[in-house]
Target: Tripartite-type tricarboxylate transporter, receptor component TctC
Amino acid sequence: MTGSSCSSFSLRRRTWLQWPLAGAAVAALPSLTQSQPQAAPLDGGAVRLVVPYPPGGSSDRAARLLADALAPRLGVPVIVDNRVGAGGRLAAQQVHRETSGQNVVLLANPATMLVAPLVFKDSGYDPDKDYVALSQVTRYAFGVAVSAGVPVREFSHLHAWMLANQDKLSAGVPATGSLPHFFALMLAEQLGLTLPVVGYRGSAPLLNDLMGGHVPLAIDTLDTLEPLHKAGKLRILAISDEQRAPGLPMVPTFKEAGLALSAQGWNVLYAPTWLPAARARRIGDAVVQAMGDKGLQARFEAADMVPVASSREQTAKMLASYRAQWAPVVRRSGFQP
Model:
């Protein structure tokens, strides 16, 4: 295991991964701004799209694709701003407390908007009172991956290997208190073993440690793991979706592997409630319009993400259902930050 505890990571490993898809399929597609006519400028000027997570992860890549598509529809620049810290809470607190009156929105996932308010007595923001969910942008599944040094090529053999290696067993996740963290606990429960969870500050340091053999097992978003799996740098053994991924037809779902496990995460665009309603409405409408565009959908799919175009009402319904499913899991885990 890397790091001094299960909630930290080695500070000596700071090198960011060079993501294989950065200059490949996504870059090969034409920019959406080349053909999209410029709209009348949004009141308040440029939009700052805050991402609570580091560059290179699923949310960051989604934000950059979305920003490219929103700019011509809003008639102003859309600038991605990575505000990393406190498992995503720092960004949510800062956007909530913003006093500039400028256009600021937040692209967040369940760790920030579901888990944190459940496990912290005072997270510094209330997702229901301080934010309005404008639209879901993506959904994603998780994968369980092993390093090349782990002599396991199928999920059916993983359980036996884990039992035989309890003394050096750990699972890395991109953040403490993230959905992969709780999925790791659910996996351990179903397998009947103890699985120490190592929380990292993002996917890049996690996967650097996985490929370097410093942590044997990782749970992360499928779009993050898939390029490295295809490059032979790690092996995905199972995925958390209800059906196999188109790009990984030989990798089974957990249900196919005999476990009653399935999970999907999401990225949702939020506006702080202090943002004027007319501006928030226009940004939300632009997101729905953009996410329904076939060209943008192709760019998300090329980046191994599942695009979603949902109205404010549809997004609210999804979030309520999601909370009903996951809040009991988080509470039952007894997780303490």
